[in-house]
Structures are given as C-alpha cells and as structure tokens.
Amino acid sequence: MAQVLAPGSIVVADWHRCNESKQYFSKILHRKRRRHFGLLEFPVMPPHVPVDTIHYKVFISGKSGVGKTALAARLAGLNIPNVHYETTGIETTVVYWPVKLRESGRVLFFRLQLWDCGENALRRFDHLLPSCKEQVDAVLFLFSFTDRTSFDDLSNQIAKWTDTTEDRVVKLVVGTKFDLFMHCDVAERDVKVFQKTWSLPVLHIGGEVSDGFGDVAPLLNCLTEQLWHQDCVTAGSANYHLVQETV
Amino acid sequence: MFGSGQGVALSCCETEGGGKVAWRVFQDSVMLIAVSGGGRHGAGSSKEEEVHLQRLLENVWNCMVLVLGQDELTNMRNVERLKRDLRSCFSIIDQLLEDRQEGILGNLTHCTDSLIPPNTTVIQEAVDSFAKAADSEFGCLIVHGRIAAATEKWWRLAPQEVVLLSALVRTLSGSGSASCDYPVFLPQGSPTVAHRLLRFHLLPGADVCVLCGPTPSLHRAETELVGRFWSPLVETLRDCLAVGERCLPGSVSLRPDVLALLLINRETRRSVSCVRTSTNHPPCAPLLPSKARCWELLKLFYIFSIKHYFMQEETLCVTPEERAHKTNTEDFVHGFSHQPIHCYLVTEECKSYGLQTPQHQLFLLIPLSVPTFALRTVATQTLSDIVAATGLSPLM
Questions:
Q1: Which H/E stretch holds residue B170?
Q2: Which terms under GO biological process does the entry name (chain A) (predicted)?
C-alpha cells in the first residue's frame, strides 16, 4: 500500500478561501447556496477560461444508518434528511468541485458521482453491488463515531475491496457524526492506530452545515487529490510500458 | 374484528368531535388502520373524510408492496424483521400522509397527474427511443412531478401503479439525487417479482425513468444513453419546464373567470389540474381564496361530486373483495335510474361546477362574482376550449 499523501501536496488546500478561486466556485453556487445540476448540465466557464472537467465514480460503503445518504447530501450541498430512511436501491449524487493543482497551477473541475446504496437493499438484491463496483474509481468507507461496531467492521469492509482487480481504487475512511462527542464511542487513539495499520487517510465530518465550503472542503480536496494522484500513477506506469515496448 | 367473527362488516367509525377511524385488511394478512383527527381546518363532511382515509389505506398498502413485494408482506416469518424492513417505505408513506405538493391529485383521483408539453411529438419520440435503447418498453418523462410523456406500455400499467410510480419518482427527485436504480414490485402487474426502476435527473424539475430487467446497468445507461438521447433536447425540455404548474401549454387560453380546474380523461385515466394566480383582480371585488385553499377546495369538490353525483371510474383490476368493499360506499347515485351530468355547489368562498361527458370529467372553481346561471356556460366553454386546443395531443 502506498504512503498516505500529505494533504495539500498535490492540490492547493483551502483554495476556496482565495480570492482568485471565486470565479470558479461561483459556478457551483446559486443564490449563495450550492447549485443543483441535472445530468444534462455542468458548470460553464466563460470561453477565455478553459477548464477541463474530469469524471469519477465514488462508492460510499458502510453499515446501515451510518450516514451514507447524509454524507452524499452534505457533500453536494443538498438538504440533509432529518429523519433516517433506509435507502432501498442505488441513488447517485453529483458533486462538482474546482481544484487548483499545486505544481502547474492548472485548474480542474472534478465531477464526482457518489454512489449510495442501502445495506439491506444490497443484501436483498444481488445485482446492486456489481453495478456499484462497475468502473468505480474510489470507495469511501464510512463509520460512525457514535457506533463502535461500525468502526470495528471497517477491516471487513476494506478486505472486500482488496482484490487485485480493484487495486487501483482509491480508498478513504470517513468517520461521521463527529459532532456528537457526548455519545462518542470511538476514541481518537483507536483511529490513529487504525490509520497506521491500514495507511489510509481517515477524515471526519459532522456538525452544523456551514454557509461556505468549510465543512466539505477538507474531504473533497483529499478525495480529489487521491484520485488525481492515482491517475498520474496509472498514466505513469502506462507510459513506462509504452517506453519499454518501443525499445 | 369482533364483528367479522360474527359475519358483520364494520368499515369505519367516528367520534363526536369529528375524529375518524377506518381500516381495511389486505390479502388476509395485514390490517391497516387510518386515524384522522377531525378538526382539520375546513375539512368537508365526514363522508368526504372517509373517502380520503380509504384512499390512503389503499395507497399505503400499494406502496408497501411496491418496495417490499407481496410475498414479504403476506408470508411473514419474523414480525420484527418486517417492521425493520417496512422503514424503507416510510419516505413515500410520509409523502402520502403529508400530501404536501400542491396540485398533485393522483393519490385521490387515481388518475395520473399529467402535463401537456408544447412540443408533444418530439418529447414522445424521445421517450420511446430512449426506452427502447434501454431494452425497456416502459418509459416516461416526469416534469414538475407530472407525466409529460410515456410509452404506450407505461399507460397500460394499472392506474394506481402509474400514480404510485409518479409518487416514488417525486420522492426520489426531491432528495436531489442525480440518478437511481430502484428495485420495485408492481402491486398489480408483478407483486412478487421485482423490476428495476432507473431514474435520471435530466434538469431540475425533469426526470426520465424506465422500468427494465437485468440490463442495462445504471452506469452504462447513464454514460451511454442519457447524453445521446437527451442532450439535443435540452431546450425542448426547458420549454416543458416553462409550462410549470399550469399543466397546459400556452396555446390553451383559459377564461379569466376560472379560478381552478381539474380535468379528467375517463378513458385514459389521466388528469390535468391547475390553480390560477389572480393577476388583474379588481380591488373592490370580494377576496378570492388563496392558492393553497383553492387546491383544497378543488379536492373537496371532487370528493363531493363523485360521492354524490358522478360515478368514479371503477379502478381497473380490483379484486372481488375490493369490489364488495366499494359497494359499501354507494350513495344515492344507485337510487336513480339516470346519471347526473352536471352539478354545482355555491359556498361562502366560491362557486364550483362539475360536468361529465362520456370521455371527460371537469371540475371548476369560479369566483362568487360570476352569476350562478352563467356557470354552465363557463364550464362547457372551458372544456371545449381545452379539447379544441389539445385535441391532437394523445394525453387529453
């Protein structure tokens, strides 16, 4: 397993706070709230500012009730359901996120399509999991800070994704409901130990939805960074093979 | 339960305060009980309330079947597990209970809320070819929660199913998700084998869905088909969205004295409805009821009319048990040898007029300022205006 990338080593961290990013972030806003895009829509930049959009498929994995749907809603700036309803099939959510690459200064729009599927539905219908795994680029493994069993189950969940074929899939661990520290069931120490053993990035989320991008930026930047890094590694090795062939 | 043991059917009961309890047993297995608090603002008489509750029971049962399948509900092995599984239907049931979205009457009428797009043929062709490309015969386009176009086979589903699927799509679409792959059981057509409902959120307010078998996968359908069929039609879709809650294209001009209307096509079981927002209302005239109140009045008048005068279409595919149940609710309609074709009602808030022809039923709300003797003309003219303007549309 590769070394965990230091946050901000590839993309500019906290770029959403910079003035120069305004023209990009304004494209994913509508009346100061996040804009909702239909499948036929995308952020449009003026013609003199060409920006590439790259598409990724991200699967959200985790026990029932851990907050998969809520995470997808939060990342997309949608209303977070205030009652828990079991998701009875696959629901996907699209998130656009502008990123500035550190080295080249190039700006990219990431189009992340988050795939969320209820655990019970996965168990009842066999066709759902293969559909979620089809051409997937990243998996977010979720656990809830208020539910110890969801944390203990992580290794099982991750083990399911370590086949050779899925080696190129980016993996990230996200702890939800971090704000409910009164009911916290998972100690910070345990999280650190976990992070060390698996060398996977562990992020946390929870609490009030902030007005800006503050609550989602760390997670989205980390995810996009990992995805971009993975792509570069893949492209690099492909080039390497090409070179070998020509020689 | 005591009654049925003695061979007596008791269908509902009522308290002095207007509270009401209604129940019904489905498939000899699950009894659903609905309780209403009575004191609802401006609710109609208890008869109206009862129609509401019975409809609600039927809809709730259908939506339980839709999500879980009939087998799960009738041969339950473990009650605790069923209770947990039933949570999956709560979001649609909540939608039925709250009845929040204005202008959606299908839950009550069991006719599909429709919207007539300005460019019917283009839209129809797109839906047909999109469904075909997705290996499906069942496809439909939903705009503002109402069906704007659907394949021939979609209309052959039982009316309750069409209404229920529209409700499901509204719930899914309301959550803001971009696409989904939902296993659904059709309460009439396929209560034990699940189909896949694929839904794609094309533009805010416009969703296309198909019912299909094992292929294509959601990923493939979305990446290969959605863009190919729908990207060229973005502007056409925007024109559909612009029709908005009026449900009728701009080519249909309504008389200024129509406050609200509900038009049902009795053959196709489709309906359009709208409430006008008054723009040039003379300030001295008596206050018109608010938009929300108009929707409520329209529903109440519909229930009043079908309860007392017009027969509601026998919903297709009712089981004999259900038919027996329906006859309990008969009213004096059956006491007459003739069939009323017009009815009206004047209340403190507005005047209402209903008429039925072999093909249509029309329900109108009209301001109090319009003299009662003119109502009939307003109604017949409105009907002929709409039919003339949309005559070629397969919807109405």
A1: helix B159-174
A2: cell projection organization; exocytosis; protein transport
Residues of chain B found within 8 Å of residue A71, distances taken between Cβ atoms: none
At B44, the amino acid letter reads G
Whole-number Å distance between alpha carbons of B206 and B141? 7
User: Which domains, and CATH codes, for chain B?
Assistant: 2-100 (no CATH), 117-244 (3.30.450.30), 260-390 (no CATH)
- Reading the block at residue B81, the tokens are 């597990």
Torsion of CA B260, B379, B262, B329, to 10 degrees: 120
- Rounded-to-integer distance, Cα A91 and Cα B173, Å: 10
For residue A40, give the nearest of B67, B177, B231 by CB distance: B231
> Dihedral of CA A19/A21/A24/A29: which sign?
negative
Q: Does residue B396 sit in helix, strand or coil?
A: coil
Domains and CATH numbers, chain A: 15-246 (3.40.50.300)
CB-based contacts of B121: which residues, under 8 Å, 6+ apart?
none
**How far is residue B351 from each of residues A223, B71, B301, B309, B379, measured CA to CA in Å?**
61, 48, 10, 17, 12
Q: Using an 8 Å Cβ cutoff, are A83 and A65 in contact? A: no
| Residue partners of B17: CB distance under 8 A and separation at least 6 | B38, B39
Rounded Cα gap, residues B179 and B181, in angstroms: 7
How close are the terminal C-alpha atoms of chain A, in Å?
A: 30
Q: What is the pLDDT of residues B219-258, one digit of tens each?
A: 999 999 999 999 999 999 999 999 887 888 878 888 888 9
DSSP code of B311?
Answer: P
| B-proximal residues of A, 21-60, CB under 8 Å | 36-41, 57
Residues of chain B whose C-beta is under 8 A from some C-beta in A?
67, 85, 87-88, 90-91, 94, 172, 175-183, 194, 196-197, 200-204, 206, 214, 217-220, 222, 226-227, 230-231, 234, 237
Which two three-digit tokens encode residue B76?
Answer: 């339950």
Q: Do A91 and B177 touch (CB under 8 A)?
A: yes
What ipTM did this prediction achieve?
A: 0.89
The 10s digit of each residue's pLDDT in A169-195 is: 888 999 888 877 777 888 888 888 888
